[in-house]
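WP5 quarterly update. Target: UDP-galactose transporter homolog 1. Source organism: Venturia effusa. Length: 437 aa.
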Amino acid sequence: MPRTKSPAMRREPSEIHSQSNGIVHRDGYSEKAERIPAMLDQKLASNGKAGAPGETVAKATGNDPPGILNLIISVGGIYGAFLSWAWLQERITTTAYGPNNDKWRYPVFLNTVQSVFAALSGLVYLFARTSHPHKPGRPAPIFPTSKILPPLLLISITSSLASPFGYSSLQHIDYVTFILAKSCKLLPVMFLHVTLFRKRFPVHKYMVVALVTLGVSLFTLHQGSSKKHSSKSSGNKNQAWGLFLLAVNLLFDGLTNSVQDNIFSTFRPYSGPQMMCAQNIMSTLLTASYLLLAPYIAPTFFGSYIGMSPGSELSSALTFIKTYPAVGWDVVGFAVCGAIGQVFIFHTLSTFSSLLLVTVTVTRKMLTMVLSVLWFGHKIKGMQWLGVALVFGGIGAEAVLNRREKNAKAKAAKAKLLSDAGQDRKIAAEREGKKEL
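Structure tokens (predicted):
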């Protein structure tokens, strides 16, 4: 049988090879070299904008930079929500109701209402801004793995415990002192990182802590009678005890923030909306369980040992609201403002720079103090204003130095990527030359 000439076979370029299943693949080095510009742009974009931790699951919003309208809405939303939130918080916790001057004493109930509204708004935000990494059309899972449950439970417990201590401190200190101290969250966070995680910080952070501590000390030592009508109630106040309760509150806040950082770094990708939903759902379950079970635990030996009140906070709070309906609307408004404010914070963090968020947060707390002084009649002395300046000056300096540190890291990352890109192109070119030979 005569031999037939086979048709000429098409030779693929040397950077392409075919497997037995007929699928054509590109050579790894050439493909990687072609992807380098896109990888570099993506990396530089991520370094240039400090998004919320774990925002890799967030839906793409386009390549266009955020406009001025977006900026105005974001900043205005934070100011409006949290200034209203702070004003309602002070009014709820310090107003005397009725002829007997009854005051609101139900922090766990207030915390439960707030976490319910925050969980609901977090779910809406989760559905609107995230997508499942493996199931298109579905939001990111709130609890992606069972291993994340213990740390989430821990931050839910610490955040739930922090609020009662903070609200109790307001019975012994004024709201201006409360806001000023709450602005110093760097102190407990650094303390816990140094003691628990054995982490070391740059020298400038220790200087900032010293500056802020000096400012708070000046403000507290020169406080005296800081309210126009404080003379009637000053006998019932123990400032040292109030500061101790506030210190416990800050310690729980610092532990919450430290564990949150650990969750974001350990369970990647885990986004802000997922954290917002998970923490508020678990906090609601914890505080609601306490409200329902406390009347049954209080009469026991354990309840009396830890000093639980024999009454039911849930029924007492509902009775208080029924007696004074105005406080009920304040509680709902407080919870709504807090929930909306959290959404605006996460949106601002994922859309703009972290420096903008820090600037807005610091100025918002300053405006909160001014609003408290003007609306509720607080008086601040000259040396106290110096203490305020030291606190917010230290916080502002820390934000600027953090920004410089991030920019330096971004430049180093850019240089490394460019170096790696050159090496990959060189290797790809050498392989091409060998194949042609």
